[in-house]
Amino acid sequence: MKFNKICVLGLGYIGLPTASTFAAHGVKVLGVDINPQVIETLRNGGIHIHEPGLRETVKTALASGNFSVSTKPEEADAFLIAVPTPFHEDKFGEYEGQKYKLADMRAVTSATEAIVPFLRKGNLVVLESTSPPRTTIELVAPILARSGLQAGRDFHLAYSPERVLPGQILRELIENARVIGGVTPESAQAGADLYSIFVKGQIVQTDATTAEMVKLMENTYRDVNIAIANEFARLADKFGVDVWEAIQIASLHPRVKILSPGPGVGGHCISVDPWFFVETAPELTPLIYNARRVNDAQPHFVVDLVKRALGNLKGKRIAALGLAYKPDVDDLRESPAAEVVHLLRNEGAQVKAWEPFKPDANLPGMDMAQSLDAALKDADAILLLVRHTEFVSLKPADIASKTKARAIVDAVNGWNAVDWQAAGFKVTRLGVRK
Ligand code: SAJ
Questions:
Q1: What pairs with residue 82 in β-bridges?
Q2: What percent of the chain has pLDDT over 90?
Q3: DSSP secondary-structure letter at 116?
C-alpha cells in the first residue's frame, strides 16, 4: 500500500516523534492534538516535551512543508492513534477484596470517534497507545464501524505498540524491531508497508490481540523481575547479606540475570502496563498483581533505612539526591524517589531535594534545592535516590567538606561504602545489613 498523507492523532511523547519522523521521510503528515496550546506552541516553532533531538526534527519537518498541525483530523491514507491511556483517578476494580487500577480509555475512544467522519474505503487505521488486550477489536473497530465501513473488509485496522526508551526515542523508533498486529493479514501487511517507510529494525506481522499482549508482556516481565530483585534485597537485609554481591554472583550462572533492587518502579510504562492485564483478568494474575504491590511498597523500605541511620525522623534534615524516575533522565512521572521524599516528610523530616535534571521541578510539598551544595549544607544525612552518573562520581572527601552530615543512605548501590567510610561517613545501604 502507498501512503501520500497520514494523520497522527496525539502529539505527545510518541505521536510527535513519529509524526515528524514520517514527515522527514517525505510523507505529508497532519499532526492532530485536541490541546490548542500544543498546536500553538508547535506552530510558533516551540516544543512542549523534552526529548533529545526532537526540537530539530520537528523544526526541519515543519520547514519542509511536509508536516502541519491542527486540532482536527482530515482525510488521509492512514490514521495513527497515539494518545495516552492513563488510569482512572477515582475508579477502581475489585477482585476478592483486592483493589486494582482501571485504564482510562476515554482518549482512545474520542480519538477514534474523531476519525469516523474522515474514514474512507481502503484507508489504514493503526492504534499505538498501550491498551488492555482486545482493545483494537472490541473498542476501536466498533467505533469505526459507525462510518458504515467494516474493519478488515473495507479498511485496514492494526495495532502497533511503540517500544522506545525515553531519551532515545528518535533513534529507537527507527532501529527497534516493530510488531504490527492486523485484524486481518492484509491489515498487518498494510501496517508493515506504512512503518517500513522509516523502520530499519525487523517488522513482525501478527494479529492485533497478540501485538497488544506482546507490549504488555514486555513491561510486565520487567516489573515482575524488578519485584523479585526488591524482595531479594529485603531478604538479604534480614539475613545479613549484601544483596548486590549476591546478585552479582548469582548472575554468573549462564541462565540467570537478576535486575537491580531500588526505591521502586516509576515512569509511565512499567509501573502502569501490568495493571492492564490485572484489570482484564484479575483471576489469572496473582503474580503480576503482587509484583506491582511489591514494587509500589518499596519506597517504605527506603524510609525504614533512613530511620535506621537517623533514628526518629522528626526535625531531621535530609539531603535527597535525585527525584527522576530513573538515572540520567529529567522525567519525574510516577517517580519512586519523589514518593520516598513525601513519606519522609510525613515522618516529620525536613527534606531538601536536589534534581540536577530538573532543579525547578514544581512538585506539591517538595522543597527543591537550587544546587547540590545548598541541599548538603545543613543536612544530617545524605540520601541517594537515583543513580545519576554525576552522583555516582561524587568524591566522598569533597562532600565531607561541604556538609555536617556524617551519614549516607544509598538506595541504589551508587556509592562505594568503603570510600565513604574512609571519608568519615556512616553508611546505610539498601539490601545490605552486615
Ligand atoms: N528499575 C529498577 N531496577 C532495574 C531496572 C529498572 O528498579 O533493574 C526501575 C527504574 O529505576 C525505573 C523503572 O524501573 O524506575 C522503569 O525503568 P526502565 O528503564 O526499566 O523502563 P522505562 O519505563 O524507562 O521504559 C520501558 C522500556 N521497556 C522495557 O525495557 C521492557 C521501553 O522499551 C518501553 O518502550 C517503555 O517502558 C514503554 O513505553 O513501555
A1: none
A2: 93
A3: G
Q: Is residue 218 lining ligand 1, measured as CB closer than 6 Å?
A: yes
139 in the same domain as 242: no
Q: What is the pLDDT of residues 187-224, one digit of tens each?
A: 999 999 999 999 999 999 999 999 999 999 999 999 99
Do 154 and 262 lie in one domain? The reply is no
> pTM of this prediction?
0.94
Q: Are 385 and 320 in contact (CB under 8 A)?
A: yes
Percent of the chain with pLDDT over 70: 100
pLDDT of residue 330: 86
| Structural domain span for residue 358 | 221-434
Ligand 1 centroid–CA 270 distance in Å is 6
| Residue 204 and residue 225 in one domain | no
Find residue 31's DSSP bridge partners. Answer: 8, 69
Mean pLDDT of 28-53: 94
Q: Report which ligand 1 atom has the smallest distance to the Cα of 226.
A: 3
pLDDT on residue 341:
98
Q: 7 an active-site residue? A: no
d(CA 224, ligand 1 centre) in Å: 12
The CB of 338 under 6 Å from ligand 1? The reply is no
Question: Residue of the nearest CA to atom 11 in ligand 1?
Answer: 326
How far apart, in Å, do the first and last CA atoms of the chain sit? 64
Question: Is 431's C-beta closer than 6 angstroms to any atom of ligand 1?
Answer: no
Examine the domain organization and report whether 50 and 194 are in the same domain. Answer: yes
Identify the active-site residue in 28, 215, 326, 352: 215
187 and 280 inside one domain = no
| Whether residues 189 and 226 fall in one domain | no
Ligand 1 within 6 A of CB of 266? yes
Does 111 map to a domain? Answer: yes
Q: Note whether 319 and 381 are same-domain residues.
A: yes
- Are 198 and 252 contained in the same domain? no
By most ligand atoms within 8 Å of CB, the mutation choice from 18, 244, 270 for ligand 1 is 270
Question: Could you give the 3-state DSSP secondary structure of residue 172?
Answer: helix
Q: How many distinct structural domains can be found in the chain? A: 2
Please choose, from the candidates 341, 319, 304, the residue with its C-alpha nearest in 3D space to the C-alpha of residue 407.
319
User: What does the alpha-carbon distance between residue 256 and residue 240 come to, in Å, rounded to a whole number?
Assistant: 22
Give the distance (Å) from ligand 1 centre to CA of residue 311.
33
What pLDDT does residue 428 have?
A: 98
Dist. CA 187–CA 180, nearest whole Å: 9
